[in-house]
Amino acid sequence: MNHKEFMKEALNMAELALKNNETPIGCVFVYKNKIIAKEMNNTNESLNVLENAFEFILFNALKGTFHCEMVAINKILENYPSKIFEEVNLYVTVEPCIMCASALRQLHIKSVHFGCANERFGGTGSIFRLHDDEGIDPIYPVFLGYYREDAILLLRRFYLQENKKGEFYF
């Protein structure tokens, strides 16, 4: 597979997220040209599972948020040592947020490829440049623009509908 095929798979996950009333962001993690994890955002679904704010905060403290990158990272770490990330490329439809960009840096991700910029929370260039600050962990390259218009269109479709869980974000 090539970059565009991996990004297309991430877009498929974002489509699935949209069908499930989630923010339409999808990702795939690729090791040696093979997908080892693929996920979609799961923030709204997680609010249905957890009954109260305390439980939500406690669960997030233990597992991270339900951004697709964090869900996939947790699944990868269940099956592989963290050192694998040094050879893993991430394909994600939207620029990773500041938290996810930082986690990817700490895991020493090989590279990140994304569709569109995240002008509100972007951690790899739009707001902060956490991926290439030479003062901390090894830097990782980012590549922007794969299926950019498709990623933006999915976000527009989502924000045209009502997000009933949106008011619960902390």
Annotation keywords:
globular; 170 residues; single chain; alpha/beta; 6 helices; 5-stranded mixed β-sheet
Structure description:
The chain has a five-stranded mixed sheet. The chain has six helices and five strands; from the N terminus they run αββαααβαββα. By secondary structure, it is of the alpha/beta class. It is 41% helix and 17% strand. The protein has a single domain (3-168), classed as Cytidine Deaminase, domain 2. Residues 48-52 have low confidence and may be disordered.
Strands, total number: 5
CATH uppermost class? Alpha Beta
Total separate domains:
1
Poorly predicted tracts of residues: 48-52
Whole-Å distance between the termini? 38 Å
Strand order of the largest sheet: 2-1-3-4-5
Rounded average pLDDT: 86
CATH homologous superfamily caption: Cytidine Deaminase, domain 2
User: Which strand-content bin applies to the residues?
Assistant: 15-25%
Q: What structural class is derived from the secondary structure elements?
A: alpha/beta
Order of helices and strands: HEEHHHEHEEH
**Would you give the CATH topology?**
Cytidine Deaminase, domain 2
Helix content: 40-55%
Measured on Cα atoms, how large is the radius of gyration?
Answer: 15 Å
> What form results from the Cα inertia axes?
globular
Largest sheet, strands/sense/barrel: 5 strands, mixed
Helical run tally: 6
Query: How does CATH name the architecture?
Result: 3-Layer(aba) Sandwich
GO biological process, one term: tRNA wobble adenosine to inosine editing
GO cellular component, one term: nucleus
Keywords: Hydrolase
Domain CMP/dCMP-type deaminase: 1-126
